[in-house]
Design brief:
The protein is an alpha/beta fold and about 2000 residues long. The chain is built from 53 helices and 58 strands. Strands 38, 39, 42, 43, 44, 45, 46, 47, 48, 49, 50 and 51 form a twelve-stranded mixed sheet that branches. Helix 12 crosses helix 13 (about 465-480), helix 12 packs parallel to helix 16 (about 530-540) and helix 32 (about 935-955) runs parallel beside helix 34. The protein starts with about 25 loop residues before the first helix and ends with a strand.
Length: about 2000
């Protein structure tokens, strides 16, 4: 028995006839099943096929016959195809050998990258081979293999076995590949095979470097040759052919024949890692070289290198001869004018994502040098093919090599797009390649061909195939056949995935598909069955699809037969011819030939790139090829000629042909010379002829809408997030102002529109830091740049300015960011593209730390790829305004976008807002058949303008018999023109609306403008409406009469003012012809009523292209108020996520029938201004109840679908969910079909009653300053700066414009686009959402899920980031970083929102609030309080004595001693403490009791900008003071060490153990017993040292709870000089302070002080400093230096001191205070000659009113000092801080220091500013109970209790409880002292706050102490707090007390309390009771304090 053909399935069967049915009954059943499946909506074959197949062929005979000859091969290869992999245990390596990947066991490097330049010794007969290791996927290993064991280039003649040498260590003679694999450390889990791992030949290039060469041609499983597309990503196939939506809309690249050296220099694309199998069919990996790019002017010869990969199982039917087939092709594309097109750049040739196979006919030499058929077969293309058949056939390459075409190749188009689709669908993602025992297989070749036939059969006669549809068909078929494996494979991913996983989804079974077809082991389709099954499938559509298969022996034969029948006229009704070749012994081959005229035209035009298509149109216009078309359209048959009719309407009808340049110039002159007789009148006289005014015309300008404010704040929050991140890529606090530059596309209107928004927004006035105030709109132009060649200079200027002004933050706003994303390396300077890449992606901008880039776009898809520069966290999406029908932002407008337009198509009986014109389509289709050589855009534009001209002639009434002209135009066009002309007549001030004609070709648009202008002039309609040509490169040109009208409407006073934007054409009746390849961001006014897109291109079906065209109709409607129970149309009742596209199922609601609607056949066309357009927006409730019955009868009831439409997810922004909203619409009675055919009758305009607006929250602080009245502009239809609807007026709206602003425009589309846009895909979204998002990107794989309806905007972004990659000419293609995740630009943001929604206004407002925030960041809240208790000071200085001159620098000790000490506390923070008694002083009391807790809440602050000498917290990260940073990864993390420092304190009676954390950089401030050893102390300078670059005094800053907000960064305050700064922290806060301030020295207090107050910190600082002073003196003495010269001063600074000031005395202006550095203050104080005479120095607290106060005459004074102290630790050694104190410790210390006789000096010419810090600090006290789980409020009376009583104990230090108790209850404890200044409470040796109502007299019991004179003073109480031995009975007898005075004795315990009473003999004069003994409310373990009270006898 002979061998079966390769690839045929061999299963047991009853006879030897493969594919034969058992009975004719089965044939009938099969035929009926195929017909049923073809009529169904699914394209996957019905499962009846598998049931009707015969039993599979018996493989045993063939298997046994071939077993002997190939037995040796099976022994080597084993079986891996359909069985579990054999576990393989590699031989363990010898002991001590190298096991590193890429190295041999001898430790030598084998990687190609390492050996490329090394000389290698290769034995004769051996070849260098590149070996792939699974552990090194990106590297090749070099080895030498005997060439006899390798196949030749045809895959033949390879001996079994192996012989190889190691090129690392040189070991030779490896006879088994297994041993060799062990030696080179392959580390495999399966049996090593040479076919799997020996991949490439290696060779030396011209430079002698070893490089990768051709792939080793191992044979496949069954001998078939597969072609694998280029792999752009690992595991995914991406081919340029996938960019198109039409199967041949863009011709594709085909891989070129492989050459050893790449002459083009482009990198070679990586090979496929693993072979892919489909049953017994193998898809081998094939390396693909880079693609060759050529312009359209030269031929491109491309080919495909075919290669067979290692077979998993060697099949005996494998034919070696087939391995040598090389697929190469000679494809040509010839346009009628291709000979005139010049060669263009690679970018223009690949703009649409695919290269043309050839752009011109090849020369004979080119043809002879390119062999496309392996056997030399060729097909001759017949001559005169286009003339004979009227079409250019399109040949889709399918499977197998296409034969070479000869002859008239210019009239045949060839594309490999279908072939690429096949290859992509056969390349499975890596996750499915090796799964489980049964690998998941791709679709077989036969199944792909059969599915293709099915798809072509179900296409309509006018439909063009879409590549996305076919990909989805393949995907669904493959999914259904492997459903169980997919589910198993996805199960382990589900638990670990967070959020959505964008993998391959597993949908439910396809409709009508039984479950058994989804089984993984279905019988595959055999080649013998394919032809007749395909013919059977094609038979259901008649001759629409013809299959050549049964009698075709080769593709050449099939194509030759196709050409013969085509010439004979046999394919008149055939659209597709499918050629299938299934010859025995060969692989299945196929191709598809398109023979339908409409399909061929669409596919041929799609082969042009957009720029090439426009050039082709220009050529046809300039060459006169359109003359016949123009003449044909001008002829009206029996009604005459259009030109003749126009001549009868005017005296001058001389219009030359517009098709040549000379004719165009003549026509322009004739238009300019001919004017209407009305032009002789003044324009203003015509405008002001009527005294009536339009009361409805009222607009508001420049108001920021709430949603724009919300978006601006979102932008600001993202900027702040960048600044707050740990990467520190943006240091906001270092910037003091904002500058910006807005980049817009090169459109003059867009440029002027952005300037208008910028100037009117008030941003330029708000950014006062700019160089000059913007006085006019012209001045704003320097902030907006058109992205043309002139942009280079302005951006370079900005970069230079940014580098020189590091304190300015520059914002580069790239508006319309999707426009130019071309790579600069692929574009030339003339094209104007690539500028964004060249400028914004340059290293200078990327590395500038003060430049931030904001991309703004409505279509961000092209910026959301795998290689994007924008982090997903830096994307800002426009929010939805409504959720559950609740207005989230209180908007007065609602957005009407593309999704709402799509809703209108489902509205049932009403006329949809988006529709197509069937009459126009029919006429255009007939002319396309008549003129096959003309571009369809030329034909459709000519027809459209012809319709408009006829409509103008018919409606104008200037022609007799004009009623006969109606039939020569469409109903839609007649309605548009009728509405345009009648709208202005209904308004007294001639307000009208706009009609938009979108004509992409500039030449066609110019011709249309001239044609319409001439017809308008000849009809005398020049004063009725304007015709405007919108050319992106030119400014607007408006007639002067219309300019005067607009100036009156807008109240513009400038004489030379002209409108420069479309927004300023509000209410102007006009036709705007918008040209340009694509819209460039031009905003349209709200008066836009019709958006005519009937001539836009249908060739480039990308999502961005479609949506930006539809975005022209986006609209902001007035939001009508309504009951929440009666939501309007499109209300998102089920919307739960504001960012979701939709949450409904798009179910259409049944429309209500209108019984009262009159028949549409009775409505003539002339009457209705809205005929053919959208319905009048109103509902039944809006119809006036007083309207006549005739009006009500003619007003149809609105359909239910229009009253309440479900929220749709239908793209716009299928990305931007804007819920459909209530457009009040009056339903038309006729259906859409009727509207296309029958004219309608005029009926009265419904009387609409506008309801009140939604209330909008006002933001007065956001209103920019008002401009002059003449400068105001009226709002746009969609204002980027926020325009609103007009005010509600009377119910009778006579102005058509006022009615129009409440309803969106109507959109007219081509029929083909309409069908695509309105169709839904499998996910329920519009089908266009599944299109390629942009022509510059490519899909990663065909195996991708569809977008989901429930995806949010963020999830859509992640979807595109996962499934798209940029093409080589995309600017992000160079942004790939291997193995890294930091390819995001850290300062790049993306703002995306639907078109015309107000993004410009949002980002302009963002600039304003960003500037305000930077100013706010540069400001701090400074305490600005006047000193208290100044009255007593003034009274004491009534003598007017000036002790020191005002200009003296330093205090004189002798003079200071003569100054009296000021006992009064003047610091405002002590406003609530007890007054300190001083003889002769009398306080002024207001009688109000102030509690300390209330002081912080009411303290006065002032916002002051930080000076350059300020202290900063941890949020400051400027480059100058980075040494203070510890968590910034850009800087070194400074190492530090922990040191213990111990000293003994006599008072405490124990050792004090402190910890120093010393950074390595600060160790020089300390002395160690040895390097790195124990700390001995701080190094102190000498008193005689003088250095301008250092501060001698160590600075100690106690702090708690302020690790982030404490002002410890003194770099700027010290002006960069060296200083020693030590932070004193508590033990439990050591780690967090070390984290935030790693370069600071930390002094850690012992754990016993964790709950202590500020007194403990100052106590430890002072005692440590004195002990260190003594140690330093000892070291100095040992060194021979005098001990007294050691510097004895230290600084005690508060952690909130932010700035310092000095007073300059000016004779003329008086004292002036200015900011100085802390360095200047300290160096001045340290330079004081007699500083050692002072025990304590300080400065005053800053206040804005101090300089004007009369008490500041003395430059120095003696009194209390706070916050910033210069302490002499030597003189004050006997005066300690009280370590137990929490409050008033500095007052207590100053009083005791003064009583000890030490001088205290305050430098009044210096002041310190204190920042308000609400977090942390020593003044934050928390008093709570020990039962933390029981929340209680504890009052001051509960702070104490009786000893041994059951009381609620508090978890608060006893000293704090005592101080708080005395502060709040002393007026009860000392009743005689309350408000009694003359009789104070005597406090011995300490000052304690007894509340503001009690006066305290401080005295010291120390000998020789300085006390006030108390003679004759009667005290109202006595306070003894921890009385020591200096307090004696005799000392107390010196004081006199009032009778009934109160005594309070405080001790540490009860025994010492009794001892104190006894020792001081207090019972003699004081009476005590047992009930007068108290303790603080502490438990015993917390050591409570005790006190006893008594009364004086």
């Amino acid at each position: 028995m002979s061998l079966c053909p390769p690839g045929w399935l061999k299963t047991p069967m009853g006879n030897s006839y493969a594919g034969q049915l058992r009975t004719t009954r089965f044939e009938e059943v099969l035929h009926n099943s195929i017909e049923a499946s073809l009529r169904s909506n699914i394209v996957v074959p019905r499962p009846i096929f598998s049931q009707l197949y015969l039993e599979a062929e018996q493989p045993l005979a063939a298997h046994n016959n071939s077993r002997a000859e190939n037995n040796d091969e099976d022994e080597e290869d084993g079986s891996e195809s359909n069985s579990p992999p054999i576990l393989y245990q590699m031989k363990p390596p010898p002991e001590g050998c190298c096991t590193t990947d890429g190295f041999c066991q001898a430790g030598r490097d084998l990687r190609l990258s390492s050996l490329a330049s090394d000389p290698l010794d290769v034995l004769p007969g051996f070849m260098l081979v590149g070996l792939k290791s699974p552990s090194l996927p990106d590297s090749l290993l070099v080895c030498a293999v005997d060439h006899r064991f390798l196949p030749d280039e045809r895959g033949h003649n390879a001996l079994l076995g192996f012989s190889g040498n190691c090129m690392g260590c040189g070991e030779k003679g490896f006879r088994y590949f297994t041993d060799f694999a062990n030696h080179i450390n392959l580390k495999l889990s399966t049996q090593p095979k040479k076919q799997k791992h020996l991949k490439y030949h290696l060779h030396r290039n011209n430079q002698g470097v070893l490089v990768k060469g051709a792939a080793i041609c191992w044979r496949g499983h069954d001998g078939r040759i597969r072609q694998i597309g280029p792999r752009l990503l690992e595991g995914h196939v991406t081919s340029d052919e996938q960019s198109s939506n039409l199967l041949l809309l863009q011709p594709s690249h085909t891989p070129a024949n492989y050459t050893a050296s790449h002459t083009n220099g482009l990198p070679q694309i990586a090979d496929t890692p693993h072979p892919l199998t489909n049953g017994q069919n193998a898809i081998p990996p094939i390396p693909q070289p880079a693609m060759n790019h050529s312009g359209p002017g030269r031929s491109t010869t491309t080919g495909t290198q075919t290669n067979v990969g290692p077979p998993k199982k060697r099949h005996k039917g494998w034919s070696p001869e087939l391995a040598s087939n090389v697929v190469s092709e000679n494809t040509v594309k010839m346009s009628p004018s291709s000979s005139t097109l010049s060669s263009s750049t690679a970018h223009s040739s690949t703009t649409n994502g695919a290269r043309l196979d050839a752009a011109t006919p090849m020369s004979s030499s080119q043809r002879s040098s390119t062999t496309l058929s392996p056997s030399g077969l060729s097909v001759a293309v017949p001559d005169q093919l286009l003339r004979t058949c009227g079409l250019q056939p399109v040949i889709f390459k399918g499977h197998g090599p296409l034969p070479r075409l000869t002859g008239n190749v210019s009239e045949v188009l060839v594309s490999s797009l279908l072939q690429s689709c096949y290859l992509s669908s056969q390349t499975l993602p890596r996750v499915y390649q090796h799964y489980g025992p049964s690998p998941i297989q791709p679709l077989s070749t036969e199944m792909q061909i059969l599915l293709t036939v099915y798809y072509l059969v179900q296409l309509g006669p006018d439909q063009v195939p879409l590549i996305e549809d076919l990909e989805q068909i393949f995907m669904r078929s493959w999914r259904e056949s492997h459903l169980s494996e997919i589910r198993q494979n996805q199960q382990p991913q589900t638990p670990g995935s967070q959020g959505r996983h964008y993998g391959i989804e597993t949908p439910p079974t396809l409709p009508g598909l039984p479950q058994h077809l989804s089984l993984p082991y279905q019988q595959p389709l055999t080649p013998s069955q394919l032809p007749w099954l395909a013919q059977l499938a094609a038979s259901s559509c008649g001759v629409g699809v013809v299959v050549f298969g049964e009698h075709v022996g080769s593709l050449a034969q099939g194509l030759q037969l196709m050409f013969c029948k085509l010439l004979e006229g046999g394919f008149q009704n055939t659209n597709y011819v499918v050629v299938i070749v299934t010859a025995s012994g060969q692989e299945t081959q196929s191709c598809v030939v398109v023979t339908g005229k409409h399909q061929c035209r669409a596919l041929a035009e799609s082969m042009f790139s957009p720029s090439e298509g426009l050039r082709e149109i220009n050529h046809q216009l300039s060459s006169g090829e359109t003359q016949e078309l123009i003449q044909f359209c001008n002829s009206l048959g029996q009604d005459g000629d259009m030109d003749s009719l126009l001549d009868s309407a005017t005296l001058d009808s001389n219009e030359p042909s517009p098709l040549s340049s000379s004719q165009e110039s003549t026509d322009d002159k004739s238009v300019k010379k001919t004017r209407s007789p009305k032009d002789s009148h003044s324009p203003k006289q015509r405008v002001l002829a009527t005294k009536e005014t339009c009361t409805e015309y009222s607009v508001e300008w420049r108001e920021v809408r709430p949603i724009q404010l919300a978006v601006a704040r979102k932008l600001l929050s993202h900027v702040c997030a960048i600044a707050d991140s740990s990467t520190q890529n943006l240091d906001l606090v270092s910037f003091d102002r904002v500058n910006f530059l807005i980049l817009v596309p090169p459109s003059e209107v867009t440029f002027q529109q952005t300037v208008l928004h910028l100037w009117s927004s008030g941003v330029l006035q708000e950014l006062g830091s700019l160089d000059q105030e913007c006085a006019s709109q012209r001045d704003a132009e320097r902030f907006v740049v058109k992205m043309d060649q002139s942009a280079q200079v302005q951006i370079d200027s900005l970069i230079q300015e940014a580098h020189s002004n590091s304190y300015t933050l520059y914002i580069l706003i790239h508006d319309h960011a999707h426009w130019d994303i071309s790579s600069a390396s692929y574009c030339n300077s003339e094209s104007g593209l690539g500028l964004v890449d060249q400028l914004l992606n340059s290293r200078r901008i990327r590395d500038a730390p003060n430049i931030l880039i904001l991309h703004v776009t409505s279509f961000p898809f092209a910026l959301q790829t795998q290689f994007t520069r924008i982090s997903p966290y830096n994307e800002i999406h426009w929010p939805s305004s409504f959720s559950n029908d609740v207005d989230l932002y209180h908007e007065r407008t609602r957005y009407f976008g593309v999704s709402e337009l799509l809703d209108s198509t489902r509205s049932g009986g009403s006329l949809p807002l988006m529709r197509y014109d069937s009459s126009f389509e029919s006429m255009a289709a007939s002319l396309e058949e008549r003129f096959p050589k003309l571009h369809s855009a030329v034909i459709r534009t000519t027809v459209l303008i012809h319709h408009y001209c006829i409509a103008l002639m018919a409606v104008s009434g200037r022609l007799s018999g004009s009623h006969n002209l109606h039939k020569h135009s469409s109903v839609e066009t007649l309605g548009i023109v009728q509405s345009l002309l009648s709208a202005a007549q209904q308004c007294p001030t001639r307000h009208g609306h706009m009609v938009l004609l979108r004509i992409p070709s500039l030449a066609l648009a110019a011709w249309a403008h001239r044609r319409l202008s001439r017809v308008r002039r000849q009809l005398g309609l020049e004063e009725k409406f304007e015709i405007i040509l919108g050319n992106p490169g030119q400014p607007l040109n408006i007639g002067q009469s219309f300019v005067d009208q607009i100036k009156i409407w807008l109240k513009v006073q400038e004489a030379d003012w002209v409108p420069r934007t479309y927004l300023e054409l509000e209410a102007l009746p006009c036709i705007l012809i918008l040209s340009g390849a694509e819209p460039l961001g031009e905003s349209l006014p709200r008066s836009l009523k019709y958006c005519d897109l009937r001539v836009i291109s249908c060739s480039y079906l990308q999502r961005t292209t479609l949506e930006q065209e539809l975005g022209l109709a986006a609209y902001l409607l007035k939001a009508e108020s309504r009951s929440p129970h009666n939501p309007g149309p499109g209300s998102d009742l089920l919307e739960s996520d504001a960012e979701k596209l939709s949450s409904t199922d798009n179910e259409e609601e049944e429309a209500q029938d209108n019984e009262n609607s009159p028949p549409s056949s009775n409505l003539p066309v002339q009457s209705s201004p809205d005929i053919g357009a959208k319905a009048t927006p109103s509902t039944q409730n809006n119809i006036s109840p007083k309207a006549p019955k005739s009006t009500k009868a003619s007003t149809p009831s609105p359909s239910r679908a229009q009253t309440q439409l479900p929220a749709q997810s239908t793209s716009q922004a299928f990305l931007y969910p804007q819920p459909s909203f209530h457009h009040l619409s009056q339903s038309q009675s006729q259906t859409y079909a009727q509207a296309q055919q029958v004219p309608s009758q005029n009926h009265p305009v419904s009387q609409i009653n506008f309801q009140s607006y939604f209330h909008q929250v006002s933001h007065p602080q956001l209103q920019p300053p008002l401009l002059p009245a003449q400068s105001r502009r009226h709002p746009s239809k969609s204002t980027s700066s926020g325009s609103l609807s007009p005010r509600a007026s009377s119910p009778h709206l006579n102005c058509s414009w006022a009615r129009g602003v409440s309803r969106p425009p109507s959109v007219l589309l081509p029929r083909s686009l309409y069908d695509i846009i309105t169709a839904n895909d499998g996910s329920g979204l519009p089908r266009c959402t599944s299109f390629l998002p942009h022509m510059s990107v490519a899909w990663v794989s065909s195996f991708r899920p569809l977008l989901s309806k429930m995806m949010t905007c963020t999830e859509q972004s992640l979807y595109y980031r996962q499934w798209t990659v940029p093409r080589p000419y995309h600017m992000d293609s160079s942004n790939r970083t291997e193995g890294r995740s930091d390819n995001f630009h850290p300062r790049r943001l993306l703002l995306s929102g639907p078109p015309q929604v107000g993004k410009t206004g949002a980002y302009l407002h963002f600039l304003g609030i960003l500037s305000r925030m930077l100013i706010r960041l540069m400001e701090v809240d400074i305490y600005n309080e006047e000193e208290i208790n100044l009255t007593v000071l003034l009274d004491a200085r009534e003598d007017g004595v000036q002790y020191s001159p005002s200009n003296v620098l330093w205090p004189n000790p002798e003079i200071m001693k003569t100054l009296s000490f000021d006992y009064t506390v003047h610091d405002p923070k002590y406003d609530d403490i007890s007054f300190v008694y001083c003889p002769g002083y009398k306080p002024v009391s207001d009688g109000n009791t102030v509690h300390q807790e209330d002081v912080c809440l009411r303290r006065r602050t002032t916002r002051i900008k930080l000076s350059k000498y300020a202290a900063f917290n941890t949020y400051h990260h400027c480059e100058h003071c980075h040494l203070y940073l510890g968590f910034n990864p850009r800087y070194q993390i400074y190492e530090s060490s922990l040191h213990v420092f111990t000293f003994t304190h006599l008072r405490l009676g124990e050792e004090i153990q402190l910890y120093f954390i010393i950074p390595k950089s600060k160790e020089h401030y300390f002395s160690f017993n040895q390097p790195g050893g124990q700390v001995e102390g701080l190094r102190l300078p000498l008193s005689t040292d003088r250095s301008p670059d250092s501060i001698k005094s160590p600075i100690f800053t106690p702090t708690t709870g302020r690790h982030e907000h404490g002002l410890f960064n003194l770099y700027h305050a010290m002006d960069g000089v060296s200083h020693l700064h030590i932070l004193v922290v508590k033990e439990y806060e050591m780690a967090v302070y070390k984290k935030y301030w790693p370069n600071h020295i930390l002094l850690v207090m012992p754990a016993i002080f964790n709950a202590a107050g500020i007194g403990a910190a100052h106590f430890l600082i002072k005692e440590l400093s004195y002990h260190n002073l003594e140690l330093e003196r000892s070291r100095r003495l040992e060194g021979g230096a005098p001990a007294v010269d050691v510097w004895p001063f230290v600084i005690l600074a508060d952690d909130s001191c932010v700035m310092w000031n000095a007073v300059d005395l000016n004779v003329h202006t008086g004292p002036v205070e200015h900011a100085v550095s802390l360095k200047q203050v300290l160096q001045h104080m340290e330079a004081c000659p007699d500083l050692s005479h002072y025990g304590l120095c300080g400065m005053r607290k800053w206040s804005s009113r101090v300089l004007t106060a009369p008490n500041q005459r003395e430059p120095f004074s003696r009194g209390h000092l706070h916050d910033f102290l210069l302490l002499n630790v030597d003189q004050s050694q006997n005066v300690q801080y009280d370590q137990n104190r929490f409050t008033c410790h500095d007052v207590d210390f100053t009083l005791r220091l003064h009583s000890a006789g030490l001088l205290v000096c305050r430098f009044n010419n210096f002041s310190v500013m204190k920042k308000q810090i609400a977090i942390g600090g020593y003044r934050t006290f928390i008093i709570k109970t020990k039962m933390t789980d029981v929340p209680t409020s504890v009052g001051p009376s509960q702070y104490i209790c009786a000893p041994d009583s059951k009381h609620l104990f508090l978890a608060t230090p006893a000293q704090l409880l005592l101080e708080k108790y005395l502060q709040h209850t002393s007026h009860k404890l000392f009743p005689l002292s309350t408000k009694n200044y003359e009789h104070p409470v005597l406090s011995v040796d300490c000052y304690i706050n007894l509340g503001p109502e009690v006066t305290v007299c401080f005295v010291s019991s120390r000998p020789h102490s300085v006390n006030i004179c108390t003679t004759g003073l009667l005290f109202s109480g006595l306070l003894l707090c921890f009385a020591d031995t200096f307090v004696t009975p005799s000392f107390l007898k010196n004081f006199t007390f009032l009778k009934g005075a109160t005594l309070c004795v405080i001790s540490e315990d009860r025994s010492s309390l009794r001892q104190t009473v006894g020792r001081l003999e207090l019972e003699e004069e004081w009476r005590f009771r047992l009930s007068d003994e108290f303790q603080t409310a502490n438990a015993k373990e917390d050591r409570p304090l005790f006190f006893l009270t008594g009364k004086h006898i």
